[in-house]
Amino acid sequence: MKNKVLYAAISAALMSPLSAHAVNILIPNDVKQSTYAVNLVSHVGKTWTYSVSQVQGRALSHWVLGINNCLNNVVSSSPKADEIGVDPSTDARFVGIKWNTTGGTFSFTLDKEYAETTLQAFVKTATVYNTGNITGPDCSKPVSSTTDAAAAQAAADKAAADAAAKAAADKAAADAAAKAAADKAAADAAAKAAADKAAADKEKADKEAADKAKADKEKADKEAADKAVADKEKADKEAADKAVADKEKADKEAADKAKADKEKADKEAADKAKADKEKADKEAADKAKADKEKADKEAADKAKADKEKADKEAADKAKADKEKADKEATGKNSDKLCAGTANLDSYAFSNSQGHAVWIPGIATDLVFADDAPGEFAESSDGTAKFTGNVARRGDAKQGFTLDVTFTGAQATAPDAPKKELNAKAYNEGKADMSKWYFYTGFEGNLIGTGNYEGGKIHIVRMGPAFQIGNGANGKNVNFGASGWFSYDIVSQPTNTKYVFYKTSEHADFNVDLSPCAEKGTTTSHASGIDSKGKAVSTSASFGLRITTPRASGNDIDVEQDDDISVDVSIIADADHVGKSADIIIVGTYGNVSFARDGDDWKEWDGKLEHLTAAKKGVTLSNSPLSANVLKGKMKGMSGNCQVRVGYRVDDKVIYNDEALKFTVKP
Fold first, then answer.
1. What letters, b where the CB count within 10 A reaches 16 and e where it falls short, cover 615-644?
2. DSSP state of 102
3. Around Cβ 25, how many Cβ atoms within 10 Å?
4. 225-238 pLDDT, tens per residue?
């Protein structure tokens, strides 16, 4: 109780201002009683100088002088203030001039001399803070030049008085702290003496209990040992007597039986041996003849089958090698792609809406419907077919059917490609022209539909080659395509309200391209994670599909006897095109996770460093990558299954956000 009273007295002394020019600020609710002294050292003309020091407790983090109405009048500060304005470090959001420091002398100069007033000084440790009153400038009250000398003398006199008052307060605080320390030392000594006596009493009681327990155990052990010896001697004698009698009887019975059994066995063995030899000789001769005939036939059949298999494998390999060579020449395959409207992203120059087809004088806002994309079907012979229906964004009754043939696919540009995005797209590699491929020619017709019925436009490629790749559509950094064409009006629409005009020498295709999803395919955006488990952004996407004899899609029921196929199509991130990657396939059955290791499924503990690859060293390209995840029956399984697919490249794993799910029925 005495210490509590002393603490309250010290706190009251430290929290009360020594004078308007000095204050000791105590941090409340702080077991270390952290206290800091803030003093106005001098006020000379426009310059104000303060000192800040730690009296006791925790180290100071920073202090702020609340010159709220002088923020725009500060000309300079020394050392340079860390902030002039709102201190964001606490919810208090204290306003003033701030120095990050553990203590020292600080000054600042205002644009004029101003009258003195009482302000708040803010002090903060790493976690706690408080404020106190201190003299400072009032920028709403400038001081005229005629009173400068008098004001300076008054300020100097007041500073001297404040310093004397502070010294007296510091001594009182030091005396009180010394007495508190002495009282605490006496209390600590008494507590130690009591603890030493309690320890000695416990040690004595423990020894007496241990000695008694030892004596009791020795007595009980001796009595038990004596009884065990007597019991054993009696049991041993009875057992020995019985064993002798039993052995004599058993020996006689065994001898009699052994003699009779031997005589019988000898006769049966002789008879069986003779019969077995005759039978074995005949069976061996018959088997040798049959084995030779069978072996001769199997050898002839195998030679014939091996030849047919080798011939077929050679033909299949030759065909596959040719298809692979054709695909590698252009970086594409023979799968069809779906074409959609190329809408603008942040890399486009314009902020207008995108389009798929732009024809000045006719329609400059032709788009594909979201649920009816166009089809860009590429062949391994270097040709492609572009078909579909487009209509004006504002009126779906004004449209065209596309029928355009492309030729001359090649991996390098025959002339300078079109660069229609801002420089950032190319500098960041979002639009990497080295990974684009091109068609040197295209020609076809746009046939009018709806109100344009009867109209026909013939088109022919002009300008740079038709370009395909990430950022190639000139409107965004998606995988897409674009190209200029010249156009001639073959016929006008039947409806005379609508007339085609040719107002330019060229028009445009600008489209997004993506794998055409079969019915039941789930399209999923991708997420990424690096080797340290940190999320990474990616533009990759996945198309997954499960097919059974009765249904297809995602989150479906399958029977154990169903032949199922789980397939995936991967569109790689533009930054990963051309790099070697591992294909990752992970499945969950019940509460257990598995990962494909080649063609085998192995249990996986969920750690990235233990994640195996279904296929290694796959080169990622602009074209969709197709793979089979699972094929066959789910015999002996029942319950919920999930599948996720991804690829590993540059110490990152890119995977589909939405898992493919199916339930195997019991």
1. eeebebbbbbbebebbeeebeeeeeebebb
2. S
3. 25
4. 889 888 999 989 99
